[in-house]
Design a protein that fits this description.
- The protein is an all-alpha fold and 84 residues long.
- It is built from 5 helices and no strands.
- The longest helix has 17 residues.
Length: 84
């Protein structure tokens, strides 16, 4: 789906549905955030990633994703903080 805009839109819709159907699952929110990043929807990615971190604040994968998101926005200091 990363190379196909129509497939990316379908994936985003599926993630939105999945997170609504299983709100406690942080992994779904993290995957949704990653897909939103691929779609260059960074503000929405922040929202999804915050939901993932709410559910599991010590998950290293989520913090790595937070660092990647900060990098995508050009926030070097934020990326370093997230990676630490």
């Amino acid at each position: 789906w990363r190379q196909d805009p129509a497939a990316l839109e379908a994936a985003l819709a599926a993630y939105a549905t999945a997170t609504a159907m299983n709100p406690p699952d942080g992994t779904l929110y993290a995957a949704y955030a990653e897909a939103l990043m691929q779609a260059a929807r960074l503000p929405a990615a922040h929202v999804a990633l915050a939901a993932a971190l709410e559910r599991d604040p010590s998950n290293a994968l989520y913090h790595t994703l937070r660092g990647r998101l900060a990098e995508a926005e050009g926030d070097r200091a934020g990326a370093v903080t997230a990676y630490r």
